[in-house]
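Same chain as my last thread, 185 residues:
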Amino acid sequence: LKTVYRSSLEADAAEKETDEDERHKRLVTQDYELLNSWHDIPGIHNGVIDGAKLESWVVEARRLANEAGRIGPCDVYIGKVLARAPNGDDGIWPAAAVRKVIEISRSEVIERNIASGVLDRRGVTFRNPDAGGEQEWDLVKQYRTASEALRFKAPRTSAALEGIAQMFEGFAKRHDQDVERSNWQ
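reply #2:
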């Protein structure tokens, strides 16, 4: 994070910009690619998350990032990685350890970037041209159901899941409108 992102701290932000040499540019590119290739949740082993390890790692990573004036970028990457969590033992996504981290972190940036990570994880989709937003409507239902199930147990997680449902609802409506427009022609 220190290589790729500038500090938000006043003293660090006021530093004079210098001409970056080729070596530094390569290092920035390399570190950026490393951050974006990070997919493993800290504390996960054989699909099971050690909640204490994950929580400890997140608390320490956020502490160090905050001291370095880079809490925003840190929370972005934490959110994207948490999006790769397995389902919980109760069948609800995400796993309970991730829900706990979301609740204790109280970071809107993490919560928003879980949605971004879900979208990244989904990747490219293919569909029948007449299907409209069927795929997305299924996802809306899935995330809304999970949101409702967690409403009182994990309210921040529930809100994040509702945000994901709303994101897919927007996509579904656009795909449905595309089909409607093509049928008018």
